[in-house]
């Protein structure tokens, strides 16, 4: 039998699923499928690209970006409430003051603790959101909410929506790239950066360390240029014959385009992932030669290089799997001081270097830097009711994130929690509002960026979302 006729539609798609198509490298179709806004008056685009530092496990806002002097005064007192808090382990100990001192920073006077000394130096560039809130006090749904706006998997991530809405700027690179912590991916795995029901070319592409940043991008054996060219010609012939026989199909064409992009990535990825042309001073600033900061330093520097080459959305995870001991995340149940000292030490210098570098290169004016966590931590200790233990439980009622860059008012704090940092009280910010604001900065009306799926015009913000106009420049 002629091998060109042996592949039926199901076999062909199965072939793609088990090859490079599975890594969603088909960014070429992004511009074809993008429908960013059908509104006659879309918002003016301020951002062209974004880099997202996503902290896994739950950063303690009251030890970092949310100064609560009253909490310090009440250290060792009981939480005065009649309600049962929605926390993870259910242990409500006595109130616990912060473990790091806060200081006014920069000309803005933003109060930021000594937990992040390098980031604190850049306070005048930050837009701090102090009244974030989440629907869940559990890690998996909390991380899904932060990334997709829904508490469970099966919905596209923010990066996928931005890829879908903005299209491709560089046809030799994916629109959405994911750089995981060297200790592993978050427990939610690939569902965190999934394109779900959006076309597969909008899924996040995971880049790895080492000589092969993309899995299966290169053959396990080395072949001559002539052999490689002949192989590509044969594959193209098989693909085209199948299209001619079955007719055009969006899913099938996306799969074919993925192979074309993969071929171009064999040249573009090694080039962008090499730091050979980066100065010694730049590499030192990112901390890539220091064991403590090397992992995040490399990823932050690679992230900047990817943005420069036209990647729309780069996502860096700080923290790996939640389970295990010692913890490889920000999940400071046992001891906030020990846990956060370790985790902040890994990322503080690299993230600050990234922000400085973007600004010095003139990129910050049209680049968004996002620094998020799925929830905060409780102002009371996770311990017996009459004790002040060293750990804190999950707090979904109020926490802090920050943003910087394109279209934002710098050096401000927006919203607030109550006097002990327990609940958001001034302009609570659900994730839908956060996502609506990000899309707005990209020039996208969040109500108009939709995709028809299972009888519903789906969107990142579901049926909610208000743009945070007060933080816009």
Task: Summarize the structure in words.
The chain is globular. It has helices spanning 3-6, 9-17, 30-33, 69-73, 117-120, 139-148, 158-166, 225-246, 250-272, 280-286, 294-308, 336-360, 431-441, and strands at 49-55, 102-105, 110-113, 126-132, 176-179, 205-206, 313-318, 367-373, 376-381, 392-395, 399-405, 412-414, 416-417, 424-426, 451-453, 456-458. Residues 1-39 have low confidence and may be disordered. Strands 6-5-7-1-8-11-4-12 form an eight-stranded mixed β-sheet. Strands 2-3 form a two-stranded antiparallel ribbon. It has 13 helices and 16 strands. Helix 11 packs parallel to helix 12. The chain has 473 residues and is α/β, with parallel strands linked by helices. It has one domain (34-207, 273-471): Alkaline Phosphatase, subunit A (3-Layer(aba) Sandwich), CATH 3.40.720.
Brief overview:
With 473 residues, the chain is α/β, with parallel strands linked by helices.
């Amino acid at each position: 039998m002629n091998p060109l006729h042996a592949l039926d539609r199901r076999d062909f798609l199965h072939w793609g699923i088990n090859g490079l198509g599975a890594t969603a490298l088909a960014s070429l179709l992004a511009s074809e499928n993008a429908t960013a806004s059908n509104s006659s008056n879309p918002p003016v685009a301020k951002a062209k690209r974004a880099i997202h530092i996503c902290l896994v496990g739950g950063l303690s806002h009251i030890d970092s970006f949310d100064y609560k002097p009253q909490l310090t005064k009440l250290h060792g007192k009981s939480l005065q409430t009649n309600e049962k808090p929605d926390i993870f382990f259910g242990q409500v100990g006595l109130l616990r003051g912060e473990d790091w001192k806060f200081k006014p920073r920069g000309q803005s006077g933003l109060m930021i603790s000594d937990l992040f000394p390098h980031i604190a130096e850049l306070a005048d560039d930050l837009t701090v959101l102090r009244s974030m809130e989440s629907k869940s006090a559990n890690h998996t749904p909390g991380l899904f909410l932060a990334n997709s706006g829904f508490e469970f998997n099966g919905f596209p991530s923010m990066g996928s929506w931005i890829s879908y809405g903005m299209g491709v700027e560089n046809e030799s690179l994916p629109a959405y790239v994911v750089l995981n912590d060297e200790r592993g991916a978050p427990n939610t795995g690939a569902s965190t950066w999934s394109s779900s029901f959006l076309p597969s070319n909008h899924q996040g592409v995971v880049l790895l360390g080492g000589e092969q940043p993309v899995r299966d991008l290169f053959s396990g054996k080395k072949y001559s240029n002539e052999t490689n060219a002949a192989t590509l010609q044969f594959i193209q012939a098989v693909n085209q014959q199948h299209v001619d026989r079955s007719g055009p199909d969006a899913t099938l064409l996306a799969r074919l385009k993925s192979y074309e992009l993969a071929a171009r990535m064999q040249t573009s990825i090694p080039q962008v992932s090499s730091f050979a042309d980066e100065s010694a001073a730049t590499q030192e600033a990112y901390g890539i030669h220091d064991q403590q900061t090397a992992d995040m330093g490399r990823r932050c520097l690679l992230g900047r290089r990817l943005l420069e080459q036209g990647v729309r959305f780069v996502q860096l995870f700080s923290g790996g799997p939640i389970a295990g001991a010692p913890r490889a995340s920000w999940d400071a149940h046992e001891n906030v001081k020990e846990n956060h000292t370790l985790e902040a030490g890994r990322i503080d210098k690299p993230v600050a270097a990234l922000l400085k570098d973007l600004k010095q290169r003139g990129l910050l004016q049209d680049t968004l830097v996002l620094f998020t966590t799925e929830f905060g931590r409780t102002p009371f200790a996770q311990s017996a009711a009459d004790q002040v233990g060293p750990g804190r439980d999950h707090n979904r009622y109020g926490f802090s994130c920050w943003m910087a860059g394109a279209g934002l008012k710098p050096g401000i704090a927006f919203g607030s929690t109550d006097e002990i940092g327990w609940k958001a009280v001034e302009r609570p910010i659900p994730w839908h509002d956060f996502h609506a604001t990000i899309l707005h900065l990209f020039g996208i009306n969040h109500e108009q960026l939709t995709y028809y799926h299972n009888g519903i015009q789906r969107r990142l913000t579901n049926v909610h979302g208000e743009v945070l106009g007060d933080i816009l420049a």
